[in-house]
Amino acid sequence: MRGTHESTASTEGADPDWRPLPPRARGLMALNGALQLAIPGAVLGFVLGNVLASGLDLPMAWSGRVTGVVLPLLAAAGLGAWLGLRRHRHTHWRHDAQGLALRRGRLWWRETRVPATRVQHLDVTRGPLQRSRDLATLVVHTAGTQHSTLKLANLDAGDAERLRDALGRQIDHDDDA
Per its UniProt record, what InterPro entries does this chain match (predicted)? Predict the structure, then answer.
């Protein structure tokens, strides 16, 4: 059964126009997911440990408090890493004559399209971990006030620069028309 699920999921973005994130982005996506859930997991563990200890009228030694924080922290970080890997697997992008499209998720599937005519300006950012893996984030600023920025993180650095240049040429072409 798992083999069927794996092959179905890997062909989800198999449309040749839709491109996945590069495999070397997997580690950063897992790290990001782990960090997003680790701190809330530790806080939740601390609070629940103290509530249970006081509710059951148990003396809670420091080792119990540490265990009450560390175990939920590790569990939440593991869950976050797994979710980050799933996020990597189910993120695809496409650039065509109409503009840029981003497809994310599986259970909560979302497709965002940015028409080239709505693009105001473009940024490429690269943090230290992204630079070490030759990755970048393309930031597309659009006309409008609500949801006016699209961030496509952990793209191949060359793809991010090519997308920036191509969308920039489309902006210049639209301005000349």
Answer: YdbS-like_PH (IPR005182)
Q: Encode pLDDT of 1-48 as tens digits.
A: 333 333 334 444 457 789 999 999 999 999 999 999 999 998 888 887
Half-sphere exposure of 174 (CA within 13 A, CB side): 15
Domain segments of the chain as ranges: 18-89, 93-176
With a cut of 90, say whether residue 169 has pLDDT above it.
Answer: no
Q: How far is CA 76 from the centre of its chain?
A: 17
Q: Which residues pair with 113 in a beta bridge?
A: 101
Q: Which CATH number fits domain 93-176: 2.30.30.240, 3.40.50.620, 2.30.29.30, 1.10.3720.10?
A: 2.30.29.30
Q: Tokens representing 12?
A: 């989800």
Percent above pLDDT 90 for the chain: 58
The CA distance from 87 to 89, in Å, is: 5
